[in-house]
Amino acid sequence: MVLALFAAFGAGDLAGVLALVSPEAEWRIPGPELIPFAGTHRGPEGVRHYLESLVGTLEFLAFELLVTLSQGEQVVVQGREVCRVRRNGARFENRWLSLWRVRNGLVVSLEMYEDTADTVAALLQETAERDS
């Protein structure tokens, strides 16, 4: 289920992602208020808002799922991404760990674990530094 959600996200299929989200879903994304998509997002509409804010803020240049483990309702995914901030062109790499809970074929919760320092630094840049 979680891999199907990632596949839908990678294909830009927002409706496909939301079809896999429970009405009771709660997604927790770490970070300060400076990160527009950080916070707690509830239900399919909250997840929609999160995803629209995420892709409106960042362009994903690379996205890899490195490890996926599952046991019962729990799924753990380790990943890596390279992103560009749409507003200023700044790039950063991010490694993360996510803990998912799936029940009755729908995603009930997501807890992201990541260091957001590079995301914040990229968002704060006025313009991307140019290669010499």
Task: Give a written overview of the molecule.
By secondary structure, the protein is of the alpha+beta class. Helices cover 28% and strands 46% of the residues. Strands 2-1-6-5-4-3 form a 6-stranded mixed β-sheet. Strand 4 and strand 5 form a beta hairpin. The chain is globular. The termini are far apart.
Q: What's the shape? A: globular
Tally of DSSP β-strands: 6
Helix content: 25-40%
Q: Figure out the total of helices.
A: 4
Order of strands, main sheet, comes to 2-1-6-5-4-3
Describe the secondary structure blueprint for this structure.
Layout: H1 2-10, H2 14-18, E1 21-29, E2 39-42, H3 43-57, E3 58-71, E4 74-85, E5 91-103, E6 106-114, H4 117-124
Parallel strand pairs: 1-6
Antiparallel strand pairs: 1-2, 3-4, 4-5, 5-6
Question: Keyphrases for this structure?
Answer:
132 residues, alpha+beta, Nuclear Transport Factor 2, Chain: A, 6-stranded mixed β-sheet, 4 helices, 28% helix
In a few lines, what is going on in this structure?
The protein is of the alpha+beta class and 132 residues long. The protein has a single domain (2-124), classed as Nuclear Transport Factor 2, Chain: A (Roll), CATH 3.10.450. It is built from four helices and six strands.
